Amino acid sequence: MKAYKHLSITVTDKNVAIVKMNHKQSRKFLHANLVQELIKAFEKLNEDKEVACIILTGDEETFIAGAEIKELTGISVSEAYESAEKMKALQKLVVHSAKPYIAAINGYCLGGGLELALVCDIRLAGENAMFGLPEVNFGIIPGGGGISRITEIVGKSNASKMIFTGEMISAIKALEFKIVSDIVEDPLENAISLANTLAMKSKLAIATAKKLINRKHWPVNYQENVEQEIYAFSLLFDYPDSVEGMGAFLENRNPIFKNE
After folding, report:
1. Residue 67 falls in the annotated catalytic set
2. Is 89 a catalytic residue?
3. How many folded domains does the chain comprise?
């Protein structure tokens, strides 16, 4: 398997591919280079006839701690839209794959990291996992379909609270909200065990079931919803609040929004 800078891929003897993000290189954030490498990796794994299941994981402290704010600071509306489109392309590779994707989550799973986890078929959380959509703190909104998906999973009231406050929730609360299927001591170990079980099943049966499970996620209306999110996300980069929110984060201070 091709060597990557920001992630590593290991294929077990049970034909399970483990995609582990190298946070020493990526600084725990979902930056543009990591997104591009994930796209290439998922494309290859989806095409590999031997691979039966894909596991996505980070390290013991972080799954993905959101977008790289430095990359978003000062960008134009069109650049923001292009960034969100890349995320959509990455997510489609997971949703439209015939193979099951399992997210093994330790530590922080925030922003774009949560949006990526939400498109995985199964999500396992460690006891230390924390989930959130903190974009409001930067004067923007989730730009990768997170609003539609989290609302579908947790309901309008819970989704509104998460999105409006930007606060993180614990693994226990995420289980209660059905964001994850299980809380386990070792998410990666449990994901491998589950993937080994899935690898023994009929690939055609799983592919067919996955297509039916996901059929309501990418119909015309859902695609329109995601496009509206991407468009709204992008337009916020033309307003002062996004500049203040991201600047405050990079300067390690509380943002002061004018709210005019």
Report:
1. yes
2. no
3. 1
Catalytic-labelled residue, pool 115, 125, 195, 199: 115
Tell me the pTM: 0.89
Catalytic residue among 65, 67, 103, 191: 67
Task: Quote the domain boundaries for residue 87.
Answer: 7-186
CA–CA dist 124, 190 (Å, integer): 8
Within a domain: residue 106? yes
Average pLDDT over residues 58-72: 90
Of the listed 66, 107, 111, 112, which one is catalytic? 112
* Active-site residue flag, 115: yes
- Residues 120/101, Cβ–Cβ less than 8 Å: yes
pLDDT given at position 132: 97
Beta bridge partners of residue 8, listed in sequence order: 20
- 246 lies in some domain: no
